[in-house]
Design a protein that fits this description.
Pfam families: HTH_8, Response_reg. This protein is α/β, with parallel strands linked by helices and 188 residues long. The chain contains 8 helices and 5 strands; from the N terminus they run βαβαβαβαβαααα. The relative contact order is 0.11.
Length: 188
C-alpha cells in the first residue's frame, strides 16, 4: 500500500484508497467492485454521516460523492471533507447534471464533476485530468423535460420512503393508484 509520507502520522492518506458515497446501494457496490478490480482499496458509505464516520479509518486519497442523498447533500460532504482532510480529492457524481450543481461542487472543493451513468474508467479519468492540471470538463447540460424531472423526483421520494409506495404517495400528495401507474411507465 502506498502512503503519502509528507503528511503527519495522524493524517496519513492512503494513495490507493477511494471512499465511495452514494445512497444507491447497487451503484455504490458496483463502482467499489470495479475499482477494487483496478487495484484500489475501497470504503463505501450510504450517507453524509456514514462517510464522515469512515474518514478517520479510511483516510482516502480520493472520494467519489453522490450529489443528492437523503439528509445532508454531497456538496455538504465535499465541503466538510475539505475541512477535515484537505489532501483528499473529491469528485461529485450525479444524475442531476446542471451547470449550477457543477459550480456549487467546485466551489465546495470538488476537483471534478461527472454525470451519471459513469463507470470506473470515467471516474478515474476525472481524477487523472485533475492530476494533469486540466480544467474540469464543461458539464454536458441539456435541460430535463418535465416528464424526466417528475420521474427523478418520484424516484427520490420513493427512495427516501424506503420503497414504501403508500408513504411515497402521501409525501407526493397523490393517490397510491396514480403513483403505481406512473411507476409502471418506462423512464422518460
Amino acid at each position: 500500500m502506498q502512503v503519502n509520507s509528507t503528511l503527519s502520522d495522524s493524517t496519513l492518506v492512503r494513495t490507493n484508497c477511494v471512499l465511495i458515497v452514494d445512497d444507491n446501494d447497487l451503484l455504490r457496490e458496483r463502482l467499489a467492485e470495479a475499482l477494487r478490480e483496478r487495484g484500489f482499496q475501497t470504503h463505501t458509505a450510504g450517507s453524509y454521516d456514514d462517510a464522515m464516520a469512515l474518514m478517520p479509518v479510511a483516510r482516502p486519497a480520493m472520494a467519489v460523492i453522490d450529489l443528492k442523498m437523503p439528509g445532508r447533500s454531497g456538496i455538504d460532504l465535499v465541503r466538510d471533507l475539505q475541512r477535515t482532510s484537505p489532501e483528499t480529492r473529491a469528485i461529485v457524481v450525479t444524475g442531476f447534471g446542471s451547470i449550477a450543481n457543477a459550480v456549487d461542487a467546485m466551489h465546495a472543493g470538488a476537483v471534478n464533476y461527472v454525470t451519471k451513468p459513469a463507470d470506473a474508467d470515467e471516474i478515474l479519468a476525472a481524477f487523472q485530468k485533475h492530476e494533469d492540471g486540466e480544467e474540469p470538463s464543461p458539464v454536458d447540460y441539456s435541460p430535463q423535460t418535465l416528464a424526466e424531472a417528475e420521474w427523478e423526483h418520484i424516484q427520490q421520494v420513493l427512495s427516501d420512503s424506503g420503497g414504501n409506495i403508500s408513504q411515497a404517495a402521501r409525501l407526493l400528495g397523490i393517490e397510491r393508484r396514480t403513483l403505481q401507474r406512473k411507476l409502471k411507465k418506462m423512464r422518460p
